[in-house]
Amino acid sequence: MKPEEIYKTLADKFGESILGFDTELAGDPIIQIVPSAIADVCQYLAETDTLAFDSLMCLSGVDLGAKEEELSVVYHLYAMQHRHSVVLKTSMPKTDAHLPSVSHIWKTADWHERETYDLYGILFEGHTDLRRILLPDDWEGYPLRKDYKEPDFYRGMRVPY
Amino acid sequence: MPEIFSEGFFPKINLQEGTNWATDFVRDVIIPRLPEAVAGHFPMELGTVLVMLAFAGIFVAVVPLLPLVLVLAERKVAARFQNRTGPMRVGPWGTLQTLADGIKLIFKEDYIPPQGDKLLFLLAPYIIFACSFAVFAAIPFGDGIPIPSDFNIGIFYIMAISSVIVMGVIMAGWSSNSKWSLLGSLRSAAQIVSYEIPLGLSILTVVMLVESLGMRDIVNSQSGGIFTWLIFRTPFTFIAFFIFFISSIAEVNRTPFDLPEAESEIVAGFHTEYSGMRFALFFIAEYANMFAVSAIGVTLFLGGWQGVLPGYDFLGGFPGFVIKTLGLVFMMMWLRWTLPRLRVDQLMNLCWKYFIPISFFNILGTGIWGLIFEKDDVWSIGISCAIIYVGLIGAYTVAGRNLVRKPEPQPS
Amino acid sequence: METTQQTESKIIELKPFTDEMVVNMGPQHPSTHGVLRLELRLDGEVVREAIPHIGYLHRCFEKHSENLSYPQIIPFTDRMDYVAAMNQNWGFCLAVEKLMAADESKDFAIPERAEYLRVLICELNRIASHLLSFGTYGMDIGAFTPFLYAFRDRERLLLLFEKICGARLTYNYIRIGGVSEIIPMEPGSIDEQNYLDEIESFLDYFEPKIDEYNDLLTSNSIFSERTMGVAVMSAEMALSYGATGPNIRGSGVDWDLRRDEPYSIYDRFDFDVPVAKDIPELGAVVGDCWSRYKVRMDEMKESVRIVRQILAEGLPDGPVMADLKAVRPPKGEIYFRSEAPRGELGFYIVSDGTPKPVRLKGRSPCFSALSALQELSRGLMVADIIAIIGSIDIVMGEVDR
Amino acid sequence: MDKYIRNIYKGVYTVLVGMRVTIRQFFEPNVTHQYPYQHDFEKKQNVREIPKGYRGQLYNRIEDCIGCKKCELICPVDCITITGDKLPKGEQLWDSMNVVHLKDGREVIGIIEGDDKKIMSEDSMTITNITTRLGSQEVIDRLEASGDESRTETFSTEEVSRVVTRNPVVFYLDQFDIDMSLCMYCGLCTEVCPTQCLVMKDSLEGIEYSSFDRTDLIFNFDKQEMYDKDEAENTEAAD
Q1: Which domain holds residue B32?
Q2: End-to-end CA separation in angstroms for chain C
Q3: CA-CA distance, D54 to D59, in Å (whole number)?
Q4: CB contact under 8 A, B256 and C152
């Protein structure tokens, strides 16, 4: 299935939760989704036979810059059986970044969501084990946010070398 | 030259008749050489003790040199197997490398884990060291070379002493207060205790044939050339030799049975926390053990100091004995640098499901063999060799074709 | 029947209380392939739970990249999977090239010669990577000698890489729009001929060695006892955990990006994709450690096949670098994946039209595969943990980035 | 029972097959060499060759450097520090000249007769006005001894490795530091260098420069005496 068709299917099914379909920018077309609906959409994508997205290739957080007070999470899905892929994107304000977890649908999302939480501070609701994964447990702040200021000291060690 | 060397390089001592060879040595060698005034009043008991101490001193001085050589040999052999050169820096061709390592280890800090059990921690390496060297006391190196303690239960003594090693291993593992050490020592305990059984049962087949536990008796019974060696005496001892050999590899904790010190799993096993000289003691003990079990294997199955042809005993058979032993040591090294390591359950599987049943079968077979044939019957040796030959050829052809093929590369 | 049940229940009652032992395996441990830390909850030798802790080698690759221009990022991709750095370079360059190709105003084509060189070098690097995997796996299982044999052969490959790009491990060879010209190799020159001859002689030497290694390790009964039937990862589980590359092929999924989504010029070459199958007479089960390992061994042969095809065709003439004025992809975002030796290597790039990316995420195959470790290791023994880590072939540089 | 015997056979057989592989290697020659000592018995076939173009230690031939700071810009880890300044307008350190690098490592600075672009295609080149500064002292000594006023020397093209044409220098470098403890050996800086004066040493000395002190790994390539303007004028006046 082409991304347009998938978009139409999703739009029919979920209505207003599907915000739009970006094709203007270079690269793959993106389906914009409301954050709260992401788990339902993913569940639908994974379990419908005609779609059957059985693998989550990548899950990444994005912070486009200080001007846009927004964090995004991008899901790249692939269906081994039908050999088609889709990109889902969901955006939320920086101050209140939370969305449902998809780790029960694809287990690989477990660590990817932990990483996104670790580096962006996005809370994944329903994740069983949302801890920092790459950084130390007592690290402060979320380094990949564009407004992140690195601390001067971490446990008495100078951070900026 | 003193007269003691007149008969050969080593003094011939009548070891069979006297109750104690040291007493004999004092009576036959020392007293005749003393001035007559002293000879009559020479204290027999003191002399015996002194002679024994002197021999023990020679052993303690000479035998630790063996590991020094063996460690270097191991490293060089491993290097050859892996297309390397091995140690090359210290001395010509790196021959002094182990000496340098030893000196380095002596000067290193002897670290004792503060939370560990200090007494046991200090004691453990000595127990292992002492036991592995006590085994040498009963090994007959050659005809005429005195065995320091030549009792009539030599092989039994060796078995008994070498089982004490496991105590040292457990002590080392427990007292280190390290989880890796504990895992290693418990693995070792299970392994050594289990493999004692097939080891003992294999020895039993030999003892049944020779009808003696004395090491010298066992060697003397193999004096008729290569085909009277116990390995070829019956088809069952032939199998028993391999079970003995593999079990003894397990006894000395070498690959493929090096689970107690599996470096890729539990870091270094029971000696993880040891450093300096205490670590060196473990190391020396391991290599001394290796030599000891090979020597026992040679004594029991490969004719001891007896030559390939009957009557051949150059320098009392000592060089022949050492060559045979080093051959077995080389086999151990070869296996070590070829094979991966077993898992704990597979190790036990191998022992309890394969070695022990086969050993019992061997004992049964040897018993029946003993009933059918007279002792030292030439016919029995001929038949045995024929059976072994046919068996090997059969295994090579029939089984090689039908039982297992080499795994084909997977069809893609 | 009743009596057996009674005895069974009695055994359970008498079962002695055993305490759980928590052991830290790593970050300094001989066989955690770097700085992986496993929190093992042991019941004797049996693992109740193995919880991986990563991040000891985190070098802020993604944060760094946001402050670097695209050509500057390439050396950093070297440091991700340092065992197969060529493939990492390539994966990143492919992603950037695809994003740049979306901008129709600039047209650039990667020269034919560069494509051939890329495939040639990356397949050789795949062999080097799998060799290392084979060697370290042997060492994990306890056989030391295969490790040194693997290094001996890998050394020849490293010398080849050294000759073409000047470095042994962190190559920085494949560039956006072509390959590096740091050591010029004129088309048809004697240098090129010598280089190709050297590769040829390596392949002639190496191909029989694979069979030798199969004799030495793969078919060894101790090795197969240790790895066959251990830690079976079913196809569903592998997909769900995002395992890719040899891991998913070891689970019986016939999937290779080089064949199924051919990028570059892989559609011109003839090669098979080794997929694990049940081998009942040996005891191998699809998805066990042995299958994953065997797929790698077979893949080396396929890589040799690809390289031989390139050598037979010869490198085409022409430049090795596209005519690029500046690397400045258009506004947009891309996710591109390629088949690295450890699986699907994806780069997600968000560009705002400046020479620096706004966001760059490396989706590393090991990261996903390692997350399956916790489920795979439940109820196995300590020695099996080592076998699993070796068989999923992790490189911590890539996991932690 | 069949499986039991099969297992035993398989175990023994595969072990023997493995042992055959290792014992074959036992008699193969070594593949290692004794770094850094190369004993005589190995010298013949077993010396490590560092291939041409190896990315070793960075080295800057400051005489050719034009201070463009491209390397500083491209360096991903900022291990190159360059500070320099322009001369006042209208002044220059020296006129256009050529730097001829000979294959034996010597450098001759002067003006090449004829067209700069075509010199490499000809058999030999004649260099006039060889400067006393920075030139190969050996060449200069010989020329001065011969009393040749124009200080001309002819080299065959085979001797010459490369020629760098220098524009009027209106720039001087105060500092050209490379911190090799930070360098990641990517080689990007050597690729962007327009005069190819920043190179990576592809010899043993480019590899063996380890040090006990981290600050020893900061290499200063700037030569202040090059930019000593008074001295330059003096020498030119003396000429």
Answers
A1: 3-62
A2: 58
A3: 13
A4: no
Of A27, A65, A134, the CB nearest to C58: A134
With beta carbons less than 8 A apart as the criterion, state whether C383 and C230 touch. no
Q: Which of C155, C170, C212 sits opposite D21 (nearest CB)?
A: C212
The reply to whether B48 and B113 lie within a common domain is no
- Phi-psi group of B178: left, alpha or beta (phi > 0 → left; psi -120 to 50 → alpha; rest → beta): beta
Which range (B109-123, C85-99, D126-140) has the least confidence? D126-140
C203 burial level (CB within 10 Å; 0-12, 13-18, 19+): middle
Domain identity same for B20 and B141: no
Residues B20, B157, single domain; the answer is: no
Decide: helix, strand or coil at residue C245: coil
Comparing CB atoms, the residue among B84, B337, B400 nearest residue D30 is: B84
> Do B33 and B123 reside in the same domain of the chain?
no
In chain C the domains, ranked by start, together with CATH numbers, are 18-58 (no CATH), 59-374 (1.10.645.10)
Number of domains in chain B: 2
Q: Which of D231, D201, D235, D193 is nearest to D219 (CA)?
A: D201
Among the listed residues C30, D9, C33, C102, the one whose alpha carbon sits nearest the alpha carbon of residue B402: D9
Do B27 and B143 have their domain in common? no
Which of D5, D30, D39, D46 best tests the B interface by mutation, with the highest count of B CBs <10 A? D30
List chains adjacent to chain D, taking adjacency as at least 3 C-beta pairs closer than 8 Å. B, C
More confident residue, C398 or D150: C398
Question: In the predicted model, what is the mean pLDDT of chain C?
Answer: 84
Asked if C351 reaches chain B (Cβ–Cβ under 8 Å), the answer is no
Q: What predicted TM-score, i.e. pTM, was given to this entire model?
A: 0.83
- Is B82 in Cβ contact with D6 (below 8 Å)? no
Q: Are residues B39 and B118 in the same domain?
A: no
Same domain, yes or no: B203 and B311: yes
* Partner B contacted by C322 (CB < 8 A): no
Chain C residues in contact with D202 (beta carbon < 8 A): 166
CATH code assigned to A3-158: 3.30.460.80
Query: Does D200 contact C at CB distance below 8 Å?
Result: yes
The helix (H) or strand (E) run that includes residue D179 is strand D171-179
Contacts of B341 in chain C (CB under 8 A): 141-143, 222, 226, 383
Nearest to B386 by CA among B179, B227, B171: B227
- The pLDDT assigned to D176 comes to 82
Encode pLDDT of D109-146 as tens digits: 666 666 655 555 666 667 666 654 444 456 556 666 66
pLDDT digits (tens, 9 = 90+) for A13-53: 877 777 777 777 777 788 888 888 888 888 888 888 888 88
Q: Which fold has domain D56-96+167-239?
A: Alpha-Beta Plaits (3.30.70)
B141 contacts B318 by C-beta, under 8 angstroms: yes
Question: Which of the other chains make 3 or more beta carbon contacts under 8 angstroms with chain B?
Answer: C, D
Let me know: does C366 contact C395? Beta carbons within 8 Å.
yes
Q: Name the closest residue on chain C to residue A108, using Cα atoms.
A: C241
Residue of C nearest to D77 (CA): C72
Tell me the domain boundaries of chain A: 3-158
Whether complex ipTM tops 0.85: no
Q: ∠ at Cα C357 (C351, C361), nearest 5°?
A: 100
> Domain map of chain D by residue range?
1-48, 56-96+167-239, 103-160
SS3 at position A87: strand
Residues of C within 8 A of B409 (CB-CB) are: 214, 298
Give the distance from residue D57's alpha carbon to the nearest chain B alpha carbon, in angstroms: 28
Q: Which of residues 236-275 of C touch B (CB under 8 A)?
A: 272-275
Q: What is the pLDDT of residue C3?
A: 46
Q: By three-state DSSP, how is residue C73 classified?
A: helix
Q: Is residue B175 located within the same domain as residue B51?
A: no
Which residue, among C36, C98, C363, C394, would best test binding to A if mutated, counting the most A CBs under 10 Å from its CB?
C363
